[in-house]
Specification:
10 strands; 4-stranded antiparallel sheet; 2 domains; 6-stranded mixed sheet; alpha/beta; Rossmann fold; binds adenosine-5'-triphosphate
Length: about 300
């Protein structure tokens, strides 16, 4: 009855939100010649359009997890893999890395390492060329991708003449033009200065709602908390927490166990509660915290 009442577009959207974009099931991985598994019994799912932030201390296994999701493990990087990864409900172990790359785009830490062409438009065309996209379609996608990352007008420039933040935005544009269903970014801002970090997160913020599922590994908890729909905390290859930013970042004591911090506002509220024996709700954004304080204290002071 409900389905019948929906328009064709609504039905399409309905089917998208109800399907899983990513399912990781009992995933474990051990590199050769190591004594312990780097990943142990990882389970989570993401729906279409959701953005996942992966946080964890150094060596937790975050990059290893990312490589299991794009098929580099175990096809290119060998080791003992257990469990399954489903992208768009297909088990990626049934496909080659090249096939998986049509659905899963990857943005690396260091932008320079992923740029190889003479001009910005050639850079964006390069990935599409490997997918067999026609010249006329490429032109449309180049224009669109540059507009999305704020680099319109830079088509003929050299990628090497861009700032770090612009280079990373170009790397994102190159992935966007390939129209993957999932975009994985492994610490895309770690090599950038604060201005570059802001540029990249502003672009990512604008991409939200573009029907693309995203996975971002980053130590920038402030930005992760506002940008992501779900957070996964990884430590020594095990999932310690998975849920919304509010569900995860309010577990301050758990985070501290793994030398991780919540956003500053959440840390402040936690310490305020401790120092003054209060029970103020822990918020993960300044806006929410202000609203909480206003409703608690207006007229009482
Ligand atoms: N090719 C490899 N062979 C053997 N061990 C490896 C290999 N690559 C990574 N490791 C080990 O696996 C563990 C997890 O590494 P990984 O890079 O996935 O962690 P990470 O959470 O991404 O760390 P960081 O935040 O420092 O990037 C580390 O102990 C690392 O030394």
């Amino acid at each position: 009855m409900l389905i019948q009442a929906l328009s064709r577009n609504d039905r399409r959207r309905f089917s998208i939100v109800t399907k899983e974009a990513v399912r990781v099931k009992e995933l474990a991985f051990q590199y050769p010649d190591t004594e312990e598994k780097t990943l142990k019994d990882i389970n989570f799912t993401l729906r279409y359009g959701e953005i996942l932030g992966v946080v964890g201390p150094t060596g937790a296994g975050k990059s290893t997890l990312a490589m299991c999701l794009n098929g580099l493990i175990p096809e290119v990087i060998e080791g003992e893999l257990e469990g399954e990864v489903y992208i768009k409900e297909e088990n990626i172990q049934d496909f080659s890395v090249a096939d998986v790359s049509e659905y899963v785009g990857f943005v690396f830490q260091e932008p320079e390492n992923q740029l190889s062409q003479m001009t910005i438009e050639e850079e964006i065309a390069f990935g599409m060329g490997n997918l067999g996209v026609s010249r006329s379609e490429m032109e449309v996608r180049i224009k669109d991708a540059l507009a999305q990352v704020g680099l319109t007008g830079y088509e003929k420039r050299s990628p090497l003449a861009l700032s770090g933040g612009q280079q990373q935005r170009l790397a994102i544009a190159s992935v966007l033009a390939m129209r993957p269903s999932i975009m994985i970014m492994d610490e895309p801002t770690s090599m950038l200065d604060p201005k570059g970090k802001n540029e990249v997160y502003d672009v990512l913020q604008n991409l939200k709602g573009y029907d693309m599922t995203g996975i971002i590994i980053d130590h920038e908890v402030e930005r992760i908390a506002t940008y992501c729909d779900k957070i996964l905390v990884l430590n020594e290859g095990e999932v310690q927490a998975f849920g919304t930013p509010e569900e995860v970042f309010t577990q301050i004591e758990l985070l501290h166990q793994f030398q991780l911090n919540a956003p500053q506002v959440t840390e402040f509220l936690y310490r305020y509660n401790q120092e003054y024996q209060q029970d103020v709700k822990l918020s993960t954004t300044v806006k929410e915290a202000v609203a909480t304080f206003e409703s608690e204290y207006t007229g009482k002071v």
